[in-house]
Amino acid sequence: MTEILDHRLRGAWTPEGAAAAHLPDKAVRWLTQRIGPLGADAPVAPDSALAVPDSRLPSGARAALAGVVGAEQVTTDRAERLDRAGGLSYLDLLRRRHPASGLSVPDAVVLPADPAEVQRVLEVCAAHDVGVVPFGGGTSVVGGVAALRGDKAAVVALDLERLDRLVSVDPESRIAVLQAGVRGPEAERLLAPHGFTLGHVPQSFERATIGGLAATRSAGQASAGYGRFEDMVTGVRLATPSGEWRLGVAPASAAGPDLRHLAVGSEGALGVITEVAVRVRPVPGVRRFEGFVVDGWERAVGVVRALAQDGLLADVTRLSDVDETGVSLALNAGWKAAALRAYLAARRVAEPCLLVLGWDGPSARAVAARRRETVRRLRAAGAVALGAGPGEAWRRGRFSGPRQRDALLDLGVCVETLETAAYWSRLPELYARVRAALRGALARPVVMCHLSHAYETGASLYFTVLAARDGAGPIGQWERAKAAACATIADGPLGTVSHHHGVGVDHAPYLGAEVGEVGLSVLAAAKRAVDPTGILNPGKLLR
Ligand SMILES: Cc1cc2nc3c(=O)[nH]c(=O)nc-3n(C[C@H](O)[C@H](O)[C@H](O)COP(=O)(O)OP(=O)(O)OC[C@H]3O[C@@H](n4cnc5c(N)ncnc54)[C@H](O)[C@@H]3O)c2cc1C
Description:
alpha+beta; Vanillyl-alcohol Oxidase, Chain A, domain 3; five-stranded antiparallel β-sheet; binds flavin-adenine dinucleotide; about 35% helix; seven-stranded antiparallel β-sheet; about 550 residues
């Protein structure tokens, strides 16, 4: 199997998910039964087959950039540019299999060493009318790092990988300042000697950077316990063409609107985040994962809602619907799955929905005390306790998604995810209508869903879709399905067009439905203030 995610500069996914790279024959047979004959397999094209236009970076701009970062840190090398040509959505990956579909390749890659260099790079780019795409881990799944030129003379990828330091730790306040290019595992490695953890674990943890997580309002798998990334951000340092901007002087403030939130979620369109001050917590002494099954999606959602509203959620709380639970059992072809099915049948569970809980705490006793009432509530609601096995299996496989996606892509499967969120009262309608939209747009798809971020007032829904790939028009096939789902979500609007992936290019047409015309003009005015000539991330967030 081809490892298409092993980008030279961005590093491979860790071996933790390697087991998922191989799909057992039984799983492939099951998939064929469900979605029909698999689409034509298009292998990953070698780099030499991909069209890379000549760099349009004017020589004057190149010389000025070299004057800031050093000549060796401004490159127009073909491989380096290709490496930053887009993110990791299904469509991004398809474009590497269908060379004719066209990649957005930056004209150059610029690698500043520190916040001061980032600031000066922006000033040079503004002076030479060159667009700038801030590039963190490149894991965007909404077109956030597509190298769109807009009306600019050229566009460069501003890669933050050299901003890789822990700047300071304030143990008393439990705040750490990290540079924007630090990736998830490195952040944990840097914080560990101080006894702290960030506790932010998205599925893209291995590659996503601190700056990217802040710029997209990321949500990690333990969001119920540690909060979303924006909840952790106490301050930001932002380079903008209008000058440097630092925000965050106190834990809370009534000094006008919270401008930190113009930086957090700005997706590179309002500045380049160079440093982030984050709230950290002591490294937990104990981590415990476990599984339960609840009979029926609606009942299970009701159980999670009650836990959220009564402050009883585990740090990781992840509820799969009947289809996702079924697929997990089908793809986990071992004897344990068969035994589990038999056990659930004996317990008269007709529509099993798997609930995974993960707990962090200073000691086993503290974790036991926290989970006692939650487990009591689950039992009272008829949930079947499955013990540590399913929870641990989920923990072991929690980074395997990208590798499994590669295996499915190799088989000719259309495989993609989309996420949204709504208030509890609208969640059933959102769930039903998005499923119907996806089913209506694709032939014989498997549409599965989980709820992995719950709040007192509502929750997110995360859909995964599998369908036989349309070999003749694979990109259009998914674009139509995604458009149908987004239009459904934006109708009303019923929910948000993105709970944690961001807007990028893909969701920009739906932003107005969510924030209104006034909201769009407020964002546009903010952009004019910090980026008067519009060099920052052309075409993203605001169209
Ligand atoms: C397999 C997979 C699983 C994922 N799972 C999750 C998940 O569980 N939770 C989640 O929230 N997301 C998830 N994502 C989406 C993605 O990882 C997040 O959006 C992440 O926050 C992006 O971080 P990054 O460093 O890779 O940013 P990039 O992809 O490099 O950039 C994302 C956006 O932020 C901008 N940007 C990047 N760095 C900066 C900066 N320093 N200053 C200003 N703008 C910047 C970019 O221009 C772009 O618009 C997943 C993606 C993949 C491929």
